[in-house]
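Example record used in the benchmark description.
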Amino acid sequence: MTFRLSLPLLLLLLLALPAVAHDYRQGALSIEHPWSRPTPPGIDMGVGYMAISNTADTTVTLVGARSPRAGQVSIHESRTQDGVMRMERLPAGLEIPAGETVTLKPHSYHLMLEKLTSPLREGESIPLTLEFEGAGNMTVELKVESLDGPAMPTNDGGMHGGEGIKHSGQGMNHSGH
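Model output (structure tokens):
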């Protein structure tokens, strides 16, 4: 028996593959749409965003991350306080409560990729290992998406810094980035 696909159906299947391949699952954890933004030349910091879902009966904590493209990856939270956006490092990690999803996104929780070995370029995938307490490590790829892309709106191009942002990253200076 010969099986034949029509050209439109074949194209539809091929276009659907990248979307499926961009979500990750390991045990009770799933990572949806890990992404980043391009960085300008000379800027040695980038960001990482994603949604982390925990279907387990217990809380899991994202305690760290690492990437061969960054000298260090840390977990941060940005929030507005007294009309000023502030960014703080979360040294104890980020809890993912049982049965919930926590979204890392612009102006909220995010990963800071510090001391990049080279700028992040649109279209590339950046390997990233997420380290969890209460679950094993999980390797994903951050898809570097266009500044004009539809992923999630951001006024700062996915980078943090500029006017009105105070940084309290325990000795880290992100101003001007």
